[in-house]
Amino acid sequence: MPPAAAATEEQGPVDTASVSPDSGPLRDADSRGSHGVAADAHRGGDPGDHRSADGDGPASDHRAAVSGDGEAPAGDPPHRGAAPALPGTAAVEPPRRVLPAVVTAAVCGVLASAVGADPVLAVWLLLVPGMVAITAVDLAVLRLPDVLTYPMACLAAGGLGLCALLVADAGGSWLRALLGGITLSGSLLVLALINPRGMGLGDVKLSLALGTVLGWYGWGVLVLGVFAGFLLASVYAFHLVALRGAGRGTAFSMGPFLAAGTLVGVVLGGLAG
After folding, report:
1. Residue 233: CB atoms within 10 Å
2. Which helix (H) or strand (E) element contains residue 48?
3. Do residues 262 and 225 make contact, with C-beta atoms less than 8 angstroms apart?
4. Are 267 and 259 in contact (CB under 8 A)?
5. Who contacts 55 (Cβ-Cβ below 8 Å, separation ≥6)?
6. Which letter does DSSP use for residue 118 in this model?
């Protein structure tokens, strides 16, 4: 056996980092996860340059989960171009991107059926995309950022004020809507001060918009919408305790239930009007 061949067998597989000059660190470990690490390992990156999906250490464990021994499978040539799309990726990501649009369209359809040709429908339709975005953020990170809650309150108050100004019989009261937002926000603030774990300040800020919307149709609709939101939250909390073994300290998003209760109130208010 020639000396060069013997040296190759003793040293093991050739380090692909010396073969691929265009290898580099993982570009986006958070978004690509272990599949992205495995793909870069085939492309010839240095194992020491790759980080794990959470950015705390080497990604050798991710590669082991894919190939079993931390190395690329034998016989696979190093890839210099972009990594091919992994099977199943296209089937998972599009539904997650389409879901908010589907929910938005469905809610707009329900509101249009309930409110009809009332000019206030334009305000409700403008609020729906932002409310869906707020709900998605709260479900994902248990937070309601000010960059979303405050503009929603301003849009609700301004849109209803413009509607009351331009339409003689707008079907609601702008002053009562403003008072409804202040009343609901103040009430939830008291609850947040009494029990910070049960009600967050983000929910208090969100209620400015929700109370304004419900107050447009009347105090009865405001009470009904808030009651529906808390009822839905209570049912979900019971589900967590009874079926998932959650305790009293388990946190969950309250914003989506408040938004759902508001939708119930607006639909009933539109049908009654």
Report:
1. 20
2. none
3. yes
4. no
5. 29, 30
6. -
